[in-house]
Design goal:
Elements: E1 3-4, H1 7-27, E2 34-40, H2 44-60, E3 63-69, H3 75-87, E4 93-96, H4 106-112, H5 124-131, H6 140-151, E5 160-164, H7 171-179, E6 188-192, H8 199-203, E7 208-211, E8 229-232, E9 236-239, E10 247-250, H9 255-259, E11 264-265, H10 275-288
Parallel strand pairs: 1-11, 2-3, 2-4, 5-6, 5-7, 7-8, 8-11
Antiparallel strand pairs: 9-10
Helix pairs in contact: 1-10, 2-10, 6-10
The protein binds guanine.
Length: 294
């Protein structure tokens, strides 16, 4: 039986650790960490995510500010909002929820966020620091995966790590993190993507497989080496009449058959997903305590 890497439990543990630290800070009369989230428009998924982030702040004892802007807000007005939060000394962390409406440049907005407050780890400065293995805010999903590997004491040194997908927020940073001279890290990394030839043959050689391709149940048992560690970043809703809400969630990995071959695997739901909010809270705490930019 494989080890089921339980992101729900691990995320709860991290949130409790952060809550305990906030209590200490408050008892010592220190500054309570404060996260600001900017939400543009009425995208349902974004509203749900931001709502969950605000609730998580309350749970650990952080302060939070939610700035809601209309769908048709100008780029200039959004940039001004970011600048105001940048300059507000009470706010430690700033996130602008993505995606943004088409008339707004994500690059311009991201570049405007002060790296010291960029707890999403999306700014060029913080991505660069990650690549250099300097203190930084690592983006929520990669940080969540790193933390799961650490807390489940997965050996990564000298292993062949195959990453499927090269997105800026998951595949690309994971390939950098797994190759760096650190733990988790020191893996030999192959970053695969839509132009990769012989994908199946490459994936079959993975000791650690990180799947962020965004295709439901893409990875099947015949693609996986016996004893591999499998991290599934995908999440998809599929219709299921037998469920009360009419759907169920599946990942990029065909869980039942792949788990039978793996030594450890993240489930969907309850694997990587719940870790992302814990990562954001952790980065906000780092910022409040000036651990990244002293
Ligand atoms: N949209 C989807 N994931 C994220 C995230 O981690 N941060 C922000 N700001 N927006 C997102």
């Amino acid at each position: 039986m494989p080890t089921i890497i339980d992101g729900k439990k691990t995320s709860a543990e991290i949130k409790n650790e952060i809550a305990a630290r906030v209590k200490e800070i408050k008892a010592a009369g220190g500054k309570v960490p404060h996260l600001a989230a900017v939400l543009v428009g009425n995208d349902g998924a974004s509203q749900t995510y931001v709502g969950a982030k605000v609730k998580a702040c309350e749970f650990v004892g952080f302060e939070s500010t939610l700035v809601k802007l209309e769908d048709n807000v100008s780029e200039e007005a959004l940039l001004k909002t970011v600048e105001e939060i940048n300059e507000n000394p009470d706010i430690d962390g700033l996130i602008v929820q993505l995606p943004l409406p088409k008339h707004i440049s994500v690059e311009k907005v991201t570049a405007k966020i002060k790296p010291e407050k960029d707890v999403d780890g999306f700014t060029p400065a913080n991505v660069g620091r990650m690549a250099l293995n300097w203190p930084t805010y690592v983006a929520a999903t990669p940080y969540g995966i790193v933390e799961l590997l650490k807390r489940y004491e997965i050996e990564t040194s000298g292993k062949h790590c195959v990453v499927i997908g090269r997105s800026h927020i998951v595949g690309s940073p994971m390939s950098i993190l797994m190759a760096r001279n650190d733990y988790p890290g020191n893996s030999t990394v192959t970053l695969t993507h839509s132009r990769t030839k012989n994908l199946k043959e490459i994936v079959k050689t993975a000791d650690i497989l990180i799947v962020a391709i965004g295709k439901p149940e893409f990875v099947t048992a015949d693609m996986v080496k016996e004893g591999a560690v499998v991290i599934d970043v995908g999440i998809h809703r599929i219709e299921d009449a037998s469920k009360k809400n009419g759907f169920r969630l599946i990942g990029d990995v065909k869980f039942d058959e792949v788990s039978a071959k793996s030594s450890a695997i993240t489930p969907v739901p309850g694997g990587v997903g719940p870790m992302t909010i814990a990562s954001l809270l952790y980065n906000t705490l780092l910022s409040a305590e000036r651990k990244v930019y002293p």
